[in-house]
Amino acid sequence: MFAQFPAPLNARFARNRLAVAGLVVLFLFLLFCFVGPLVYSTDQTHTDLSQVNLAPGGAHWLGTDAVGHDQLGRLMYGGKISLLVGLAAGLLATVIGTLWGAIAGYAGGWVDAVMMRVVDAGIAIPALFILLVVSAITDPGPLGLVGILGVVSWLVPSRLVRAETLTLKSRDYVLTLRAIGGTHGRAIGRHILPNSVSTIVVAATFQIADAILLVAYVSYLGLGVQPPATDWGGMLSAGLTAAYSGRWWLIVPPGLAIILVVCAFNAIGDGLRDAFDVKGRA
């Protein structure tokens, strides 16, 4: 997607060193989580009680956990789930919010009023609370987490896209389309959404970061993906007690991974927002 941006946009993004650093960090983590297991192969399904709680060393670069899993391999495995769930949930939330906001803003009147009151009511309920309740009732798994996160996280993108739509629907090219008999769907699909791409792209990056954090929160409380599967939040939860015994390698690596990835997505979002901001350029 980034490679398809116009050259001036690429140049503006590249001038933001923090955003470029975030892109590099994200790329390295993608390599680490998806290519790393092909190079550093470990068994993350079966336990090995003869290898429990080993300190970092030659055989296990980041030591082992309480059931003998190699911690470096588990960091890769957990990161793959965290990134996949976060990316999928963030994109799903953005798609739902984009369609909802575009329809509400374009329709206007009582339709807009009703749809946005639904959004206001949803924002009043913390997404984490809803996620915890649903996770406590069911065992969602990775796909279930994607669905739940997408359903509870689309509210903010919908408001952003609605605001953009309210501006765009009064433009001459939209009014001309309607005057010659163009349908509402064509107006939204051919004019409103393509001209809202900057808002949508920036919203998606922040939604992905929020989704990764929400997955970590839920897994930390033991309500995320269940063993033998894990994610970075689950690794934090499993290693918390051991950290008090000096086994820092069980909690520091996943904690740093979450911080770095979330900061990377936020930095990329800030960089994209500045690059798209034509009015703010000198």
UniProtKB/TrEMBL annotation:
Its main location: membrane. Keywords: Cell membrane, Membrane, Transmembrane, Transmembrane helix, Transport. Coiled coil: none annotated. It is a multi-pass membrane protein. The keyword Cell membrane applies. It comes from the Bacteria. InterPro entries: BP-dependent_transpt_permease, MetI-like, MetI-like_sf, OppC_N. This is ABC transporter permease.
